[in-house]
Amino acid sequence: GDSWGIFTFLCAALCNLPALPALNCSEELGTSQSIQKTYDLTRYLEHQLRTLAGTYLNYLGPPFNEPDFNPPRLARAERVPSATVDLDLWRGLTDNARLAANYRAYSRLLCYLRALDGQAGTAELRHRLGHFCSSLQGLVLSIAGVMSSLGYPLPAGPVGPPAPPGTPVAPNDFLKKMDDFWLLKELQTWLWRSAKDFNRLKKKVPPAVVTLRLEAKGF
């Protein structure tokens, strides 16, 4: 009867399951996981920087460690990539342009931070800076991974500080401390904005959708 026919059909379908197309979602999953990992890393670095900045500013001493210290940005500080771009203008950029800007900025900021690591006067501060530099290096690599998974090329050209080797960092101790202050301030803004960038990108690239790909012989 009809019941026997349905039973026979189901048995035949089950017997032929090995010949069905294989499931493959590795590419989609890789992109989604890469974006999530980069977002998590920006949030971790934000948290880590709050402690590091407080410790380093105390090392610099007054007025740099005073809560209301808000000096104008000096022309020499322009070597540090600025995150003070109009938010509407920033959001109007393509995903590729924002990712490239993040990659360039963190690559340059990392170079400056490594210079701080070699100049810090206490072992504890050098340890904190070294750990933060390792985490920031991980962020640079993670951004590169996101760009690769989305099919974007890495930015061409140098990403390090534009000043040639041997150029004096600052003519006096106060200006050197001012450079360090602005480096930490810009880094805080970059991380805050990057976290928002990758949170939006997560919503554009949803979790992996299972897709079918024919892998059986003859297809």
TrEMBL record:
Its domain of life?
Eukaryota
According to the record, the signal peptide region is: 1-22
InterPro entries in the record: 4_helix_cytokine-like_core, PRF/CT
Q: Name one GO cellular component term.
A: CRLF-CLCF1 complex
GO molecular function: any one?
A: cytokine activity
Q: Would I find Lipoprotein among this entry's keywords?
A: no
- Which UniProt keywords are listed? Cytokine, Glycoprotein, Secreted, Signal
Protein family (similarity comment): Belongs to the IL-6 superfamily.
Biological role stated in the UniProt entry: In complex with CRLF1, forms a heterodimeric neurotropic cytokine that plays a crucial role during neuronal development. Also stimulates B-cells. Binds to and activates the ILST/gp130 receptor.
> Entry's PANTHER family?
CARDIOTROPHIN-LIKE CYTOKINE FACTOR 1 (PTHR21353:SF7), PTHR21353
What is the protein name given in its UniProt record? Answer: Cardiotrophin-like cytokine factor 1
**What is the taxonomic lineage of the source species?**
Eukaryota, Metazoa, Chordata, Craniata, Vertebrata
Which gene name does the record give? Clcf1
